[in-house]
Amino acid sequence: MEGHPPLILYSGPLSMFGAKVQIAALEKGIDFELVMVPFEMKRLYQPRHPEVARINPKQQVPVLVHGELEIFDSTQIFEYLEELQPELPLWPSGRAAKARARLLEHQSDEVYFPPIIRLMSLQDQPQDPVAIAAREASMSYYRKMDALLAERDYLAGPFSFADIAFYMAQLFGERMGAAMDEGTPRLLAWRERISQRPAVRQVAGAMAAYLLSQNRPLPAFLAALLPTR
């Protein structure tokens, strides 16, 4: 990266998608400047950071700036990082294996996470039929991921962006009441393996510290990542 323009990542203290990119960049050993945009629990990201609003029509983080390049969306940013530092790949080799890993990453965002979004607005109504259905959908997804881990340590074979994506998604799922249980022991062991990775501890630990500062409850696995003094 010497001689290249600085890489700037705009994220937020509770951005699941920004955290995915942060972890990937750290895993790849890519130097970057992290800009945490203003965030407040009641107002969220209002007012929007001017650079985020300028670059992303959806006015959301993450946003990446690298010289004249300005891109957004966590998956698009990751693909750029993968080409920027191909020597430390976060996709498996081979067309079929890579396609399966990419599909798993996509499913984390587009299949698993929509029910979690529904749970976010029903925290005080856990017996609402929509909340019950959302938790059931989450458990069904957990069982599928648990089955994938029957003969491997990571979702797509080697550790990959698919693992990063689902780890961050399930972190929010756990916070919203869609917890894993003893019915998915391999998935629980997978989460513990991911939690021990230094890049994950750094990013998820900072998120845990922010939640604690806002007097928000922490799942046990996330509380274990709080930075020690």
Q: How would you portray this structure in words?
A:
The protein is an alpha+beta fold. The chain folds into two domains: 7-84, Glutaredoxin; 95-223, Glutathione S-transferase Yfyf (Class Pi), Chain A, domain 2. The protein contains nine helices and four strands, in the order E-H-E-H-E-E-H-H-H-H-H-H-H. The protein has helices at 16-27, 50-55, 74-84, 95-120, 129-148, 161-175, 185-195, 198-213, 220-223, and strands at 7-11, 33-36, 63-66, 69-72. The model has no long low-confidence stretch (mean pLDDT 94).
| Shape, principal axes of CA atoms | globular
Report how far apart the termini are.
32 Å
How do the strands line up in the largest sheet?
Answer: 2-1-3-4
Oligomer: single chain
Number of domains: 2
Mean pLDDT value:
94
Instruction: Give the biggest beta sheet.
Output: 4 strands, mixed
How much helix, percentage-wise, in residues? 40-55%
Put simply, the count of helices is 9
What structural keywords apply?
229 residues; alpha+beta; Glutaredoxin; Glutathione S-transferase Yfyf (Class Pi), Chain A, domain 2; 2 domains; 7% strand
Helices and strands, with pairings:
Layout: E1 7-11, H1 16-27, E2 33-36, H2 50-55, E3 63-66, E4 69-72, H3 74-84, H4 95-120, H5 129-148, H6 161-175, H7 185-195, H8 198-213, H9 220-223
Parallel strand pairs: 1-2
Antiparallel strand pairs: 1-3, 3-4
Helix pairs in contact: 1-3, 1-6, 1-8, 4-5, 4-6, 5-7
